[in-house]
Specification:
With 362 residues, this protein is an alpha/beta fold. It is built from 16 helices and 6 strands. α8 crosses α10. The longest helix has 19 residues. The two termini are 20 Å apart.
Length: 362
Protein backbone atom coordinates (compact mmCIF):
# COMPACT_ATOMS: atom_id res chain seq x y z
CA UNK A 1 0.00 0.00 0.00
CA UNK A 2 1.32 3.45 -0.96
CA UNK A 3 0.25 6.42 1.17
CA UNK A 4 0.97 10.10 0.53
CA UNK A 5 0.61 12.49 3.47
CA UNK A 6 0.20 16.22 2.79
CA UNK A 7 0.42 18.46 5.85
CA UNK A 8 1.19 22.09 6.84
CA UNK A 9 4.87 22.54 7.64
CA UNK A 10 4.21 25.42 10.06
CA UNK A 11 2.13 23.30 12.48
CA UNK A 12 4.46 21.43 14.83
CA UNK A 13 1.75 19.24 16.40
CA UNK A 14 0.49 17.99 13.04
CA UNK A 15 4.07 17.47 11.89
CA UNK A 16 4.81 15.33 14.96
CA UNK A 17 1.66 13.30 14.34
CA UNK A 18 2.55 12.64 10.70
CA UNK A 19 6.12 11.58 11.50
CA UNK A 20 4.88 9.19 14.19
CA UNK A 21 2.50 7.60 11.68
CA UNK A 22 5.32 7.17 9.20
CA UNK A 23 7.72 5.62 11.71
CA UNK A 24 5.16 3.32 13.38
CA UNK A 25 3.27 2.20 10.28
CA UNK A 26 3.71 -1.48 9.24
CA UNK A 27 6.76 -2.06 7.04
CA UNK A 28 4.69 -3.06 4.01
CA UNK A 29 3.15 0.43 3.86
CA UNK A 30 5.20 2.81 1.71
CA UNK A 31 4.77 6.28 3.18
CA UNK A 32 5.66 9.59 1.54
CA UNK A 33 5.51 12.93 3.41
CA UNK A 34 4.97 16.20 1.54
CA UNK A 35 4.38 19.78 2.67
CA UNK A 36 4.66 21.39 -0.76
CA UNK A 37 1.37 21.53 -2.64
CA UNK A 38 3.15 21.77 -5.99
CA UNK A 39 5.26 18.70 -5.23
CA UNK A 40 2.23 16.77 -4.04
CA UNK A 41 0.31 17.48 -7.24
CA UNK A 42 3.32 16.51 -9.34
CA UNK A 43 3.69 13.21 -7.48
CA UNK A 44 -0.01 12.42 -7.77
CA UNK A 45 0.03 13.19 -11.48
CA UNK A 46 3.06 11.01 -12.23
CA UNK A 47 2.84 8.16 -9.70
CA UNK A 48 0.06 6.03 -8.26
CA UNK A 49 -0.76 6.19 -4.57
CA UNK A 50 -3.50 4.13 -2.93
CA UNK A 51 -4.25 6.70 -0.23
CA UNK A 52 -3.89 10.47 -0.06
CA UNK A 53 -4.02 11.53 3.59
CA UNK A 54 -4.81 15.24 4.02
CA UNK A 55 -3.99 16.80 7.38
CA UNK A 56 -5.64 20.03 8.50
CA UNK A 57 -8.20 22.30 6.84
CA UNK A 58 -8.79 25.70 5.29
CA UNK A 59 -6.01 25.48 2.70
CA UNK A 60 -7.50 26.30 -0.70
CA UNK A 61 -4.69 24.42 -2.47
CA UNK A 62 -5.98 21.19 -0.90
CA UNK A 63 -8.88 21.26 -3.35
CA UNK A 64 -6.49 21.09 -6.30
CA UNK A 65 -4.60 18.24 -4.63
CA UNK A 66 -7.87 16.40 -4.07
CA UNK A 67 -8.92 16.82 -7.71
CA UNK A 68 -5.55 15.60 -8.96
CA UNK A 69 -5.73 12.56 -6.68
CA UNK A 70 -9.25 11.74 -7.74
CA UNK A 71 -8.33 11.92 -11.41
CA UNK A 72 -5.54 9.42 -10.83
CA UNK A 73 -7.67 6.97 -8.84
CA UNK A 74 -6.15 7.78 -5.44
CA UNK A 75 -8.58 7.64 -2.52
CA UNK A 76 -8.52 10.38 0.08
CA UNK A 77 -8.57 10.18 3.87
CA UNK A 78 -8.76 13.37 5.89
CA UNK A 79 -7.74 14.26 9.45
CA UNK A 80 -9.04 17.74 10.39
CA UNK A 81 -6.93 17.91 13.60
CA UNK A 82 -9.79 19.73 15.32
CA UNK A 83 -9.93 22.49 12.72
CA UNK A 84 -13.61 21.88 11.92
CA UNK A 85 -14.78 22.32 15.49
CA UNK A 86 -17.34 25.12 16.00
CA UNK A 87 -15.11 27.63 17.76
CA UNK A 88 -12.58 27.46 14.89
CA UNK A 89 -15.26 27.73 12.21
CA UNK A 90 -16.68 30.82 13.96
CA UNK A 91 -13.29 32.56 13.96
CA UNK A 92 -13.23 35.11 11.12
CA UNK A 93 -16.49 33.52 9.94
CA UNK A 94 -17.69 36.04 7.36
CA UNK A 95 -14.28 37.13 6.15
CA UNK A 96 -12.66 33.69 5.85
CA UNK A 97 -14.39 30.54 7.05
CA UNK A 98 -17.77 30.92 5.33
CA UNK A 99 -16.31 31.71 1.88
CA UNK A 100 -13.81 28.85 2.23
CA UNK A 101 -16.58 26.50 3.33
CA UNK A 102 -18.66 27.36 0.29
CA UNK A 103 -15.75 27.25 -2.17
CA UNK A 104 -13.90 24.09 -1.12
CA UNK A 105 -13.82 22.90 2.50
CA UNK A 106 -17.25 21.26 2.61
CA UNK A 107 -16.65 19.62 -0.77
CA UNK A 108 -13.30 18.16 0.27
CA UNK A 109 -14.65 16.88 3.59
CA UNK A 110 -17.80 15.36 2.13
CA UNK A 111 -15.93 13.56 -0.66
CA UNK A 112 -13.23 12.06 1.56
CA UNK A 113 -13.53 8.30 1.83
CA UNK A 114 -13.10 8.65 5.58
CA UNK A 115 -12.61 11.43 8.13
CA UNK A 116 -10.38 10.50 11.06
CA UNK A 117 -11.15 12.37 14.30
CA UNK A 118 -9.19 12.16 17.52
CA UNK A 119 -11.82 11.87 20.22
CA UNK A 120 -15.44 11.91 21.30
CA UNK A 121 -15.89 15.69 21.22
CA UNK A 122 -14.47 16.06 17.72
CA UNK A 123 -16.58 13.12 16.55
CA UNK A 124 -19.74 14.72 17.91
CA UNK A 125 -18.84 17.98 16.18
CA UNK A 126 -18.36 16.17 12.87
CA UNK A 127 -21.64 14.33 13.29
CA UNK A 128 -23.46 17.60 13.94
CA UNK A 129 -21.77 19.16 10.94
CA UNK A 130 -23.10 16.23 8.85
CA UNK A 131 -20.67 16.75 5.98
CA UNK A 132 -19.50 13.15 5.92
CA UNK A 133 -21.03 10.06 7.60
CA UNK A 134 -17.81 8.02 7.36
CA UNK A 135 -16.15 9.12 10.61
CA UNK A 136 -13.45 7.06 12.33
CA UNK A 137 -11.97 7.77 15.76
CA UNK A 138 -8.23 7.27 16.26
CA UNK A 139 -6.76 8.98 19.31
CA UNK A 140 -3.59 11.02 18.84
CA UNK A 141 -0.54 9.80 20.77
CA UNK A 142 0.94 13.29 20.49
CA UNK A 143 -1.71 14.53 22.92
CA UNK A 144 -2.54 11.50 25.08
CA UNK A 145 -0.77 8.56 26.70
CA UNK A 146 -3.95 6.46 26.40
CA UNK A 147 -2.75 5.18 23.04
CA UNK A 148 0.74 4.18 21.91
CA UNK A 149 2.40 5.30 18.71
CA UNK A 150 2.19 1.77 17.31
CA UNK A 151 -1.48 1.39 18.18
CA UNK A 152 -2.32 4.76 16.63
CA UNK A 153 -0.55 3.74 13.44
CA UNK A 154 -2.28 0.34 13.43
CA UNK A 155 -5.72 1.88 13.80
CA UNK A 156 -4.92 4.41 11.08
CA UNK A 157 -3.80 1.58 8.80
CA UNK A 158 -7.09 -0.22 9.51
CA UNK A 159 -8.91 2.85 8.19
CA UNK A 160 -6.75 2.80 5.06
CA UNK A 161 -7.54 -0.89 4.50
CA UNK A 162 -11.25 -0.28 5.04
CA UNK A 163 -11.09 2.45 2.40
CA UNK A 164 -9.33 0.14 -0.07
CA UNK A 165 -11.80 -2.70 0.65
CA UNK A 166 -14.74 -0.51 -0.40
CA UNK A 167 -16.09 -0.45 -3.97
CA UNK A 168 -13.15 -2.53 -5.15
CA UNK A 169 -14.41 -2.73 -8.74
CA UNK A 170 -13.38 0.91 -9.14
CA UNK A 171 -9.76 -0.25 -8.87
CA UNK A 172 -10.09 -3.34 -11.09
CA UNK A 173 -7.56 -3.70 -13.85
CA UNK A 174 -8.80 -4.88 -17.24
CA UNK A 175 -7.41 -8.31 -16.37
CA UNK A 176 -9.40 -8.38 -13.13
CA UNK A 177 -12.60 -7.48 -15.01
CA UNK A 178 -11.95 -10.39 -17.38
CA UNK A 179 -11.27 -12.73 -14.47
CA UNK A 180 -14.55 -11.78 -12.84
CA UNK A 181 -16.53 -12.31 -16.04
CA UNK A 182 -14.98 -15.74 -16.63
CA UNK A 183 -15.42 -16.89 -13.04
CA UNK A 184 -19.09 -15.82 -13.06
CA UNK A 185 -19.65 -17.54 -16.40
CA UNK A 186 -18.18 -20.76 -15.04
CA UNK A 187 -20.26 -20.40 -11.88
CA UNK A 188 -23.47 -19.89 -13.86
CA UNK A 189 -22.89 -22.70 -16.36
CA UNK A 190 -21.09 -25.14 -14.06
CA UNK A 191 -18.87 -26.06 -17.00
CA UNK A 192 -15.30 -24.84 -17.51
CA UNK A 193 -15.63 -25.34 -21.28
CA UNK A 194 -17.84 -22.27 -21.47
CA UNK A 195 -15.23 -19.99 -19.91
CA UNK A 196 -11.89 -18.89 -21.27
CA UNK A 197 -8.83 -20.23 -19.41
CA UNK A 198 -7.47 -17.65 -16.95
CA UNK A 199 -4.42 -17.41 -14.76
CA UNK A 200 -4.76 -17.60 -11.02
CA UNK A 201 -5.14 -14.08 -9.60
CA UNK A 202 -2.55 -12.52 -7.32
CA UNK A 203 -3.36 -11.76 -3.67
CA UNK A 204 -4.47 -8.19 -4.35
CA UNK A 205 -6.73 -9.26 -7.24
CA UNK A 206 -8.24 -12.08 -5.20
CA UNK A 207 -9.05 -9.73 -2.35
CA UNK A 208 -10.69 -7.23 -4.72
CA UNK A 209 -12.68 -9.94 -6.51
CA UNK A 210 -13.85 -11.69 -3.35
CA UNK A 211 -14.89 -8.45 -1.66
CA UNK A 212 -16.80 -7.29 -4.74
CA UNK A 213 -18.60 -10.63 -5.12
CA UNK A 214 -19.53 -10.67 -1.44
CA UNK A 215 -20.72 -7.05 -1.33
CA UNK A 216 -22.77 -7.53 -4.51
CA UNK A 217 -24.41 -10.75 -3.23
CA UNK A 218 -22.99 -13.03 -5.93
CA UNK A 219 -20.42 -14.80 -3.76
CA UNK A 220 -22.02 -18.23 -4.08
CA UNK A 221 -21.85 -18.05 -7.89
CA UNK A 222 -18.31 -16.68 -7.71
CA UNK A 223 -17.04 -19.48 -5.45
CA UNK A 224 -18.74 -22.09 -7.61
CA UNK A 225 -16.94 -20.60 -10.61
CA UNK A 226 -13.55 -20.84 -8.91
CA UNK A 227 -14.17 -24.51 -8.18
CA UNK A 228 -15.26 -25.20 -11.76
CA UNK A 229 -12.10 -23.53 -13.07
CA UNK A 230 -9.91 -25.25 -10.46
CA UNK A 231 -8.76 -21.90 -9.09
CA UNK A 232 -7.61 -21.58 -5.50
CA UNK A 233 -8.66 -18.37 -3.72
CA UNK A 234 -6.67 -17.36 -0.62
CA UNK A 235 -7.90 -18.13 2.87
CA UNK A 236 -9.80 -14.88 3.28
CA UNK A 237 -13.34 -14.25 4.54
CA UNK A 238 -14.71 -11.12 2.79
CA UNK A 239 -17.72 -11.03 5.10
CA UNK A 240 -15.42 -10.14 7.99
CA UNK A 241 -13.66 -7.29 6.18
CA UNK A 242 -15.06 -3.86 7.17
CA UNK A 243 -15.98 -1.61 4.26
CA UNK A 244 -17.94 1.54 3.44
CA UNK A 245 -21.21 1.26 1.54
CA UNK A 246 -23.06 4.10 -0.22
CA UNK A 247 -25.63 5.92 1.86
CA UNK A 248 -28.32 4.93 -0.64
CA UNK A 249 -27.32 1.26 -0.64
CA UNK A 250 -29.83 -1.46 0.13
CA UNK A 251 -29.57 -5.22 -0.27
CA UNK A 252 -30.73 -6.36 -3.70
CA UNK A 253 -33.78 -8.60 -3.96
CA UNK A 254 -33.81 -11.55 -6.32
CA UNK A 255 -36.07 -11.01 -9.31
CA UNK A 256 -37.52 -14.51 -8.91
CA UNK A 257 -38.61 -13.65 -5.38
CA UNK A 258 -40.41 -10.57 -6.71
CA UNK A 259 -42.17 -11.99 -9.78
CA UNK A 260 -42.89 -15.44 -8.38
CA UNK A 261 -43.27 -18.67 -10.38
CA UNK A 262 -46.85 -18.64 -11.68
CA UNK A 263 -46.23 -18.47 -15.43
CA UNK A 264 -47.78 -20.35 -18.31
CA UNK A 265 -44.47 -20.71 -20.15
CA UNK A 266 -40.87 -19.51 -20.21
CA UNK A 267 -41.65 -16.62 -22.55
CA UNK A 268 -44.10 -15.18 -20.05
CA UNK A 269 -41.53 -15.54 -17.29
CA UNK A 270 -38.84 -13.80 -19.34
CA UNK A 271 -41.16 -10.91 -20.15
CA UNK A 272 -41.88 -10.50 -16.43
CA UNK A 273 -38.15 -10.68 -15.74
CA UNK A 274 -37.33 -7.93 -18.24
CA UNK A 275 -40.19 -5.81 -16.93
CA UNK A 276 -38.89 -6.09 -13.37
CA UNK A 277 -35.31 -5.39 -14.49
CA UNK A 278 -36.45 -2.25 -16.27
CA UNK A 279 -38.18 -1.06 -13.09
CA UNK A 280 -35.00 -1.74 -11.14
CA UNK A 281 -32.90 0.13 -13.68
CA UNK A 282 -35.23 3.14 -13.69
CA UNK A 283 -34.99 3.32 -9.90
CA UNK A 284 -31.20 2.84 -10.01
CA UNK A 285 -31.41 -0.51 -8.22
CA UNK A 286 -30.27 -2.86 -11.01
CA UNK A 287 -27.15 -4.76 -9.91
CA UNK A 288 -24.81 -7.48 -11.12
CA UNK A 289 -26.91 -9.95 -9.08
CA UNK A 290 -29.84 -9.36 -11.44
CA UNK A 291 -27.63 -9.79 -14.53
CA UNK A 292 -26.38 -13.11 -13.14
CA UNK A 293 -29.98 -14.13 -12.52
CA UNK A 294 -30.99 -13.22 -16.08
CA UNK A 295 -28.02 -15.09 -17.58
CA UNK A 296 -28.87 -18.20 -15.58
CA UNK A 297 -32.55 -17.96 -16.51
CA UNK A 298 -31.76 -17.74 -20.23
CA UNK A 299 -29.35 -20.70 -20.13
CA UNK A 300 -31.56 -22.97 -18.06
CA UNK A 301 -34.98 -22.29 -19.65
CA UNK A 302 -35.07 -22.02 -23.47
CA UNK A 303 -37.57 -19.53 -24.92
CA UNK A 304 -39.50 -19.46 -28.19
CA UNK A 305 -37.57 -16.52 -29.62
CA UNK A 306 -39.91 -15.34 -32.41
CA UNK A 307 -42.89 -15.26 -30.08
CA UNK A 308 -40.80 -13.66 -27.33
CA UNK A 309 -39.71 -10.81 -29.63
CA UNK A 310 -43.32 -10.09 -30.57
CA UNK A 311 -44.38 -10.06 -26.92
CA UNK A 312 -41.47 -7.82 -25.91
CA UNK A 313 -42.39 -5.36 -28.68
CA UNK A 314 -46.02 -5.34 -27.57
CA UNK A 315 -44.89 -4.51 -24.04
CA UNK A 316 -42.33 -1.91 -25.20
CA UNK A 317 -39.53 -3.98 -23.70
CA UNK A 318 -37.68 -4.98 -26.86
CA UNK A 319 -35.03 -2.24 -26.80
CA UNK A 320 -34.38 -2.71 -23.09
CA UNK A 321 -34.09 -6.49 -23.53
CA UNK A 322 -31.74 -6.07 -26.50
CA UNK A 323 -29.50 -3.79 -24.44
CA UNK A 324 -29.59 -6.27 -21.55
CA UNK A 325 -28.13 -8.88 -23.89
CA UNK A 326 -25.14 -6.57 -24.38
CA UNK A 327 -24.92 -5.98 -20.63
CA UNK A 328 -24.96 -9.71 -19.90
CA UNK A 329 -22.39 -10.38 -22.62
CA UNK A 330 -20.05 -7.81 -21.05
CA UNK A 331 -20.56 -8.65 -17.36
CA UNK A 332 -21.31 -12.38 -17.23
CA UNK A 333 -20.09 -13.63 -20.62
CA UNK A 334 -23.47 -14.50 -22.13
CA UNK A 335 -22.74 -15.97 -25.55
CA UNK A 336 -24.37 -14.58 -28.67
CA UNK A 337 -25.83 -17.99 -29.47
CA UNK A 338 -27.64 -18.03 -26.12
CA UNK A 339 -29.25 -14.60 -26.50
CA UNK A 340 -33.06 -14.60 -26.66
CA UNK A 341 -33.08 -11.41 -28.74
CA UNK A 342 -30.40 -9.76 -30.92
CA UNK A 343 -28.19 -7.59 -28.79
CA UNK A 344 -28.10 -3.79 -29.06
CA UNK A 345 -24.81 -2.09 -28.27
CA UNK A 346 -25.17 1.67 -28.03
CA UNK A 347 -24.58 4.54 -25.61
CA UNK A 348 -27.55 3.51 -23.51
CA UNK A 349 -26.29 -0.05 -23.07
CA UNK A 350 -22.90 1.32 -22.01
CA UNK A 351 -24.65 3.62 -19.55
CA UNK A 352 -26.41 0.58 -18.12
CA UNK A 353 -23.10 -1.23 -17.68
CA UNK A 354 -21.49 1.80 -16.06
CA UNK A 355 -24.39 2.26 -13.67
CA UNK A 356 -24.24 -1.38 -12.56
CA UNK A 357 -20.47 -1.12 -12.06
CA UNK A 358 -20.99 1.99 -9.92
CA UNK A 359 -23.54 0.41 -7.61
CA UNK A 360 -21.08 0.49 -4.67
CA UNK A 361 -19.62 3.90 -5.49
CA UNK A 362 -19.10 6.16 -2.46
Amino acid sequence: MRVLHIYPKNNSMITSHVFILKDAMPSFVETTLITSVAEARKLLATEHFDILHLHGCWNFAYRNIFLTARKGGTRMVMTPHGQLEPWIRRKHLLREKLPKTIIFQKEITSKAYAVIVMGRIERECMQQLAWNPRIETVRNSVYTQSISNIEMARQTYDVYQKVMDSNTIENFSQTTHSQLRNILKAGITGDKRWAEPIDNADIKQWRELMLYACQEQIYDVFIRGTKVLALVPPDFDPEKAPCYMPARHAAATNISQTIGNSFVNENERLVATFRQMKKLYQSNRLTILHVVELDREIREHPAVEDELLDTLQENHLDLFAARMMTVAQCLTGLDEGMMVIPSLSDKQSQTMINRINKNLEI
